[in-house]
Amino acid sequence: MQKVKIPVTLDPVRAAQKRSSYDGVVPLKNLSRLSEQLLDTSGEVTVRIDCDIDEQKLVVLSGEAHCDVQVSCERCQQPMNLSLHCQFAFTPVRSDNTALDHIPERYDVVVPDEHGEVNLQQMVEDELILTLPMYPVHDESFCSAPDQLNSFGVVIDEPEKPNPFAVLQELKKK
Fold first, then answer.
1. What is the spatial distance between Cα 136 and Cα 147, in angstroms, rounded to a whole number?
2. What percent of the chain has pLDDT over 70?
3. Fewest Cβ atoms nearer than 10 Å: which of 47, 87, 93, 163?
């Protein structure tokens, strides 16, 4: 199967009227914000996007994205592989639209640009960034971090101090 690049921008209304589907790839190097967090940007993101109109007559862009990336383990600073997978459903809404209250919770909102188009690559990039773990770490059994990094110091027993309210206790007994 030939890998087709996903378009950068798309008119969601026209695509939904045609019931368009896009199945292709986006090079990781094109996703600059995601690439900043990766060790290697040579891969591709596999993307599927379906454009449709739902029961409420809302334009819907739904689909999924999948990619394998390499990030740095926060514990041992060694490379680690992650498999990112996300599913999404967007509905375009103008920024001046007051119908935001009537959009179902299952849809995220995307604001089209001045030409009525949405940036598909930016939508996919946003979703993949949200699936990245905040602090990626290897499983402890596979992590090469020294055991000393997992301890936070030695707790020293403090000498027992007299209770400052002991005097009040004695007065209460009298």
1. 18
2. 89
3. 163
